[in-house]
From TrEMBL:
Its main location: Golgi. It is a single-pass type II membrane protein. The gene is St6galnac2. It catalyses: a 3-O-[N-acetyl-alpha-neuraminyl-(2->3)-beta-D-galactosyl-(1->3)-N-acetyl-alpha-D-galactosaminyl]-L-threonyl-[protein] + CMP-N-acetyl-beta-neuraminate = a 3-O-{alpha-Neu5Ac-(2->3)-beta-D-Gal-(1->3)-[alpha-Neu5Ac-(2->6)]-alpha-D-GalNAc}-L-threonyl-[protein] + CMP + H(+); a 3-O-[N-acetyl-alpha-D-galactosaminyl]-L-threonyl-[protein] + CMP-N-acetyl-beta-neuraminate = a 3-O-[N-acetyl-alpha-neuraminosyl-(2->6)-N-acetyl-alpha-D-galactosaminyl]-L-threonyl-[protein] + CMP + H(+); a beta-D-galactosyl-(1->3)-N-acetyl-alpha-D-galactosaminyl derivative + CMP-N-acetyl-beta-neuraminate = a beta-D-galactosyl-(1->3)-[N-acetyl-alpha-neuraminyl-(2->6)]-N-acetyl-alpha-D-galactosaminyl derivative + CMP + H(+). Keywords: Disulfide bond, Glycoprotein, Glycosyltransferase, Golgi apparatus, Membrane, Signal-anchor, Transferase, Transmembrane, Transmembrane helix. InterPro entries: Glyco_trans_29, GT29-like_sf, Sialyl_trans. Belongs to the glycosyltransferase 29 family. It is found in: Golgi apparatus membrane. Pathway: Protein modification; protein glycosylation. It comes from Microtus ochrogaster. Its EC number is 2.4.3.3. It holds the Pfam family Glyco_transf_29. This is alpha-N-acetylgalactosaminide alpha-2,6-sialyltransferase. Residues 32-62 are annotated as: Disordered.
Length: 372
């Protein structure tokens, strides 16, 4: 389904007004150079596709096996079997940084590449992600038999849903952007294992939703941050966060990362999505018709979509809460709004396509989409 032109244009204006910085960013970089349909590159660290064997040495109480193991559901589905490549590296770290990677990614603009970005800024950031744990989302304490994840979007469907306990019962909980918790514990839970964002979406959320309760980014000892590279800003913020210094240059110059992420600065606290992974996801799962229009340079999957697809490539079983459903018109844009607001279809995203993807992944048994 296509957006009516006029609506798209109106949304573009709204979008332009609300996030001028991102718009400037996207219009200032060059053309995409990737051929449509080019396969995503697979570099290293293949991930087992088959169910992992339970470890006999494991002294922890045996967890129940997966009820909805997504790799099995993918295997059974003709369409999705051809799309999923679970061996694609999800995270970027220094172990994957080579001259060849630099040469290749320099051909693609952000968020799928490094065109026009400073080699020094990127290299000095990746150098800090030097432990192999930077290549993994889950630490050594992960359950061996079945990693069960909940990804919590911010959709209005969660208002009054009473899903909090169920969400918190998952091994890992992903949240993103304006993830308001206070006052909505019964509906969205309180546990946060990962918070995903671009610097632009994080700061916009703090500005736009502070009056609705989003006054700080979730923090906590066990919480990890997932940076979605969409400009040089993520690399600069990430490096400054690990070094514990103010951001030295760019639009966030002078920002103190600990005001967002708390006092802990260890590199293991921060993860960075691989640009190749974002391109692979976009080409295979969210190849929008917008990519063939003049909005092509702005188009990007939503933060929620990138987090949900990240979970689908790292967890054994995934439930999605607060993601767009076919009856979205019954609900407010976000669960934390005081009055019902219609869902905004920004011109740089394709929510219609995302809704169709979640529905078909749910129907294929690959994820469990919360609907009501
Ligand atoms: C980058 O690498 C991928 C996978 O190896 C390849 O398909 C693509 O053509 C390369 N792009 C450039 C510009 O070299
Ligand atoms: C949230 O749910 C409450 C109770 O069901 C309802 O009164 C309120 O209007 C809802 N808020 C929005 C923004 O839809």
């Amino acid at each position: 389904m296509d957006f009516p032109r006029r609506r798209l244009f109106r949304m573009l204006l709204i979008f332009a007004a609300s996030s001028g910085v991102l718009l400037t960013l996207y219009s200032s970089v060059g053309q995409r150079s990737q051929e449509p349909g080019a396969p995503a590159r697979s570099i290293t660290s293949p991930r087992a596709f088959e169910p992992k064997a339970p470890n006999a040495e494991n002294r922890k109480p045996q967890r129940q096996l997966c009820q909805h193991r997504l790799s099995l559901a993918i295997h059974k589905d003709h369409h999705f079997r051809g799309l999923f490549d679970l061996s694609t590296p999800v995270l970027l770290w220094s172990g994957l940084f080579t001259q060849e990677l630099w040469n290749n990614l320099s051909h693609y603009k952000v968020p799928y590449g490094w065109q026009g970005l400073s080699h020094e800024a990127i290299m000095s950031t990746l150098r800090l992600l030097k432990n192999p744990e930077s290549a993994e989302l889950f630490g050594p304490s992960k359950p061996l038999s079945c990693i069960r994840c909940a990804v919590v979007g911010n959709g209005g469907i969660l208002n009054g849903s009473r899903q909090g306990q169920k969400i918190d019962a998952h091994d890992y909980v992903f949240r993103l952007n304006g993830a308001v918790i206070k006052g909505f514990e019964h509906d969205v839970g309180t546990k946060t294992s990962f918070y995903g964002f671009t610097v632009n979406t994080m700061k916009n959320s703090l500005i736009s939703y502070s009056s609705l309760g989003f006054t700080s980014v979730p923090q906590g000892q066990d919480l990890r941050y997932i940076f979605i590279p969409s400009s040089i800003r993520e690399y600069l913020m990430l490096r400054s966060a690990i070094l514990g210094v103010p951001v030295p240059e760019g639009p966030d110059k002078g920002d103190r990362p600990h005001t967002y992420f708390g006092p802990e600065t260890s590199a293991s606290k921060f993860k960075l999505l691989h640009p190749d992974f974002i391109r692979y996801l976009t080409e295979r799962f969210l190849k929008s018709k917008l990519m063939n229009t003049r909005y092509r340079d702005m188009y990007m999957p939503t933060t929620g979509a990138l987090m949900l697809l990240t979970a689908l490539h790292t967890c054994d079983q995934v439930s999605a809460y607060g993601f767009i459903t076919s009856n979205y018109q019954q609900y407010s844009d976000h669960y934390f709004e005081r009055e019902k607001k219609p869902v905004i279809f920004y011109a740089n995203h394709d929510l219609t396509l995302e809704a169709a993807l979640w529905r078909s992944l749910h129907n294929a048994g690959i994820l469990q989409l919360y609907q009501r």
